[in-house]
From TrEMBL, chains A, B:
Belongs to the peptidase S51 family. It holds the Pfam family Peptidase_S51. Its EC number is 3.4.13.21. The gene is pepE. InterPro entries: Class_I_gatase-like, Peptidase_S51. PANTHER family: ALPHA-ASPARTYL DIPEPTIDASE, PROTEASE S51 ALPHA-ASPARTYL DIPEPTIDASE. The keyword Ribonucleoprotein does not apply. The keyword Transport does not apply. GO terms for molecular function: dipeptidase activity. Keywords: Dipeptidase, Hydrolase, Protease, Serine protease. This is Dipeptidase PepE.
Amino acid sequence: MRSIIIASTSTIHGGQPLDYLLDELENHFKTTDEVLFIPYARPGGISHDEYTTRVAEPFGKIGKSVKGIHSFDNPKKAIAEAKGIFTGGGNTFVLVNQLYKNDILSSIKEAVNNGTPYLGTSAGSNICGLTMNTTNDMPIVYPPSFKTLGLVPFNINPHYLDPDPKSTHMGETRETRIKEFHAYNTQPVIGLREGSWIEVKGDSMVLKGNLDSRIFEFGKDPYEISANSDLEFLK
Amino acid sequence: MRSIIIASTSTIHGGQPLDYLLDELENHFKTTDEVLFIPYARPGGISHDEYTTRVAEPFGKIGKSVKGIHSFDNPKKAIAEAKGIFTGGGNTFVLVNQLYKNDILSSIKEAVNNGTPYLGTSAGSNICGLTMNTTNDMPIVYPPSFKTLGLVPFNINPHYLDPDPKSTHMGETRETRIKEFHAYNTQPVIGLREGSWIEVKGDSMVLKGNLDSRIFEFGKDPYEISANSDLEFLK
């Protein structure tokens, strides 16, 4: 049975990486002591090794070790044999580019659909949607495609941010950007605020955490859904 | 002689579109009564017609008419024959995609290098840099390349935004994003705050407006330069 956690962020304000999710993760990865980490998104441009070391710390707190996919000779085989997969945040363009380079998008999709528990945060959540067209990241590299895993039948906008009524900045709000997305695309988008995640179990998809999420459907005004909502209606 | 204005934004907080630039523009476009407008960036997904109508208003105040490039049968010819060109803001991915579709990047570059006065705001400024890799926009469509006009020998980050020390949001700051850019690219980036513009006259490039700009060079700490600085050193 598919078992996926799609989290808006790894870290909430004032917290340590993953600490708000650790209870969930202990259960999510209960069938394994080792998690395969995909560090390709390289936040701040750090190395794969450095990112893997950083991620090992919170996982250590729940008794799991972490191994970076870059330390395997054959990444496809590493994914096929993994008992748990975590893709961390950073830059979605860099992540997707590297996934295409190593030709492992289909490997991840197959493993997850066959039941390997998957965790994504930020960029690692973006790739769970149909495409990466609703990332917030800067296009610092040019990936061969914006198509991603499609583990859920909609797009993700992580770190969803409400317009700041006091702002004097004239750049587009997140809501405007997603509206522009719908001038060219029709799939729904879920704006996941920091602290929210989507829990996928088999065919069920539920919004978790304490916060509402904002839903953008093509041709409709955006609206809020509350925590614990079933996301079945977005199919 | 090349004559280019590369503006961070069309509109500053509390102002009307282009009003802070109108005196400059009257002089910039003094040799023509008609400006060719490139509305491809479609802010908020509005139509080319609607965007052109919107832009005609401020230009009317300085006695110029505006004609949208979409109303010409042959956009290459429209550019070659234009006496002034303005590319407006919106979504840079949408803009660049359409410029490639119509195969007119080289036409614009040629016209501008031959002296046709050019104005860009926001997305229309982004494309003056070497690449669009430092846009802030959401990648809502997939353009065939991120390479842009290269009218200046660096990249532009329009609507440059300083980190907000009070923010509780965990998404990347603009500075972090540009640092990530330099993990993969070496050209300098100028963070143009709203109200700043670059004035190019022949080979000279000067920062205009009242604000400092933030410079990001590969392998260096970012730093500020003041208004009226010569940008020659970024070559």
